[in-house]
Amino acid sequence: MIFFAVSILTLAALLAAFPTNTRNNAASIPLTRRLNVPSGQTLPEIDKARAQAFKSTAAQRAQKDSSITPVPVTNTAVLYTAEVLIGEPPQTFDLIVDIGSSSTWIGANTSNPYTPTNTSTATSTILCVQFIEYGSGLFIGLEYNDTVTIGGLSIPNQTIGDAQWALGFEAGVDGILGLGLLDAYEVGIAFAPPNSTSDPNGELTFGGVDSSKFNGDLTYTNITTTYPAMDYVGFNQSVTFGNQTLLSNTAGIVDTGTTLVELASDAFATYQNLTGAVLDSTTGLLTISSAQLDNLPSLFFIIENATFELTSNAQLWPRALNSAIGGKNDSIYLIVSDLGTPSGEGLDFVNGYAFLERFYAVYDTGNSRVGFATTPFTFSTSN
Ligand SMILES: *[C@@H]1O[C@H](CO)[C@@H](O)[C@H](O)[C@H]1NC(C)=O
Ligand SMILES: *[C@@H]1O[C@H](CO)[C@@H](O)[C@H](O)[C@H]1NC(C)=O
Ligand SMILES: *[C@@H]1O[C@H](CO)[C@@H](O)[C@H](O)[C@H]1NC(C)=O
Ligand SMILES: *[C@@H]1O[C@H](CO)[C@@H](O)[C@H](O)[C@H]1NC(C)=O
Ligand SMILES: *[C@@H]1O[C@H](CO)[C@@H](O)[C@H](O)[C@H]1NC(C)=O
Ligand SMILES: *[C@@H]1O[C@H](CO)[C@@H](O)[C@H](O)[C@H]1NC(C)=O
Ligand SMILES: *[C@@H]1O[C@H](CO)[C@@H](O)[C@H](O)[C@H]1NC(C)=O
Ligand SMILES: *[C@@H]1O[C@H](CO)[C@@H](O)[C@H](O)[C@H]1NC(C)=O
Ligand SMILES: *[C@@H]1O[C@H](CO)[C@@H](O)[C@H](O)[C@H]1NC(C)=O
Ligand SMILES: *[C@@H]1O[C@H](CO)[C@@H](O)[C@H](O)[C@H]1NC(C)=O
Ligand SMILES: *[C@@H]1O[C@H](CO)[C@@H](O)[C@H](O)[C@H]1NC(C)=O
């Protein structure tokens, strides 16, 4: 199959409309969490497939392979969506927020089609038909420029893809809001531990950070120069469990399309060994007894000179959501899972939602760095 790797400018262009010298124009929008585990698949399987896709996509890119495919986001158990308005009069779209993607697409829900209005411009007189594989999904679409409104800010003439045909998307989702091509702007990302399968518990801030969502200072670290993590929101960190080092100053990524915290297979095996956890075949997650939970040390993420503590409670899959993933209500499942490949390959961890629900993150593309801070939820015992 032939894929045309036609880039679609997204918020890069959109955010170019923001003044560079002020944070006053930062716009925040709420994020809605949706949980949807496809039958026959487990969370760790889904996350592992995505991590391996990150690696293979980077490899294709390095080989200048023309069939570059965007990283899958739709085939994921937890989605955060944001409401974005497009056109004049504005039409509302619920888009999956994806920090790993660089394209913005709409049109996945055929009952909520995009209707070009007087603010729409087809970007080419020749209809630009694009085939872009999106994980298990597929888009065939046209490119338009139109007015995009996020958080009350309207920016004219922004480039979007309109799917004429889309396959493999979650119900209730209109497409993708890709954050990967942001240019010179910050995106602040706040999540919180969930109490139900559809909490409105996140916030995305464009053009700055929302300091009400975190404590103290942000710790910034440069986007790593280590391949392949460098192709994504990659950075270096060390991971220790209690007093045991699992990963020492190694490259990996933070990702809004990954549910769990993934560690390279050797680090994961050590973690499992130290916890005494067993693998539960139904959920694919590690499970521990309440006695083991009582003795579960914290998992520490050391980024630059700061240490971010994932407490024992933060290492648990929210027990209120056990049944949503096919688990038993009275079981205790852990959110640390196996990346599927050994350490030393330049992408040795993925800090997914289980991490982002405890720490604020800011992706500062202009300065090629990512920042983290603790939040009011870091030490929450809600799980
Ligand atoms: C575009 O259409 C809207 C409503 O249909 C109208 O209010 C607006 O004035 C139009 N804009 C232009 C530039 O024609
Ligand atoms: C569409 O928008 C992009 C980015 O703003 C711009 O570079 C391009 O020239 C526009 N195309 C048309 C046909 O307006
Ligand atoms: C969109 O941007 C392009 C390139 O800057 C410009 O030529 C075009 O007139 C703009 N279109 C609208 C509707 O503003
Ligand atoms: C698709 O969009 C329509 C119109 O907005 C909406 O009523 C419907 O619920 C959406 N479909 C799904 C599966 O969410
Ligand atoms: C979950 O419940 C706790 C305790 O009631 C509350 O503090 C927290 O804000 C809730 N989280 C969300 C995302 O609603
Ligand atoms: C991060 O990158 C900036 C800009 O390239 C550089 O000045 C700085 O020294 C780097 N910091 C570290 C800790 O490497
Ligand atoms: C690490 O912690 C364990 C459990 O608290 C303890 O038994 C062990 O002696 C410690 N090891 C070192 C090297 O401190
Ligand atoms: C980041 O980690 C990689 C190993 O994944 C290592 O080779 C590299 O030197 C580290 N970079 C820094 C700046 O420490
Ligand atoms: C951990 O690994 C050691 C040595 O490989 C083994 O003897 C021990 O039984 C393992 N512990 C657990 C809890 O699996
Ligand atoms: C981290 O600590 C070391 C040693 O204390 C210091 O030299 C270095 O500048 C610190 N780095 C940052 C980014 O604060
Ligand atoms: C398990 O928990 C869910 C959600 O809280 C609840 O709906 C269900 O009835 C519980 N099942 C059992 C067997 O208690």
TrEMBL record:
GO terms for molecular function: aspartic-type endopeptidase activity. Transmembrane segments: none annotated. Keywords: Signal. One of its GO terms (biological process) is proteolysis. It comes from Phanerochaete carnosa (strain HHB-10118-sp). InterPro entries: Aspartic_peptidase_A1, Pepsin-like_dom, PEPTIDASE_A1, Peptidase_aspartic_dom_sf. Residues 1-17 form the signal peptide. Residues 80-373 form the Peptidase A1 domain. CDD domains: pepsin_like. It comes from the Eukaryota. Belongs to the peptidase A1 family. This is Peptidase A1 domain-containing protein.
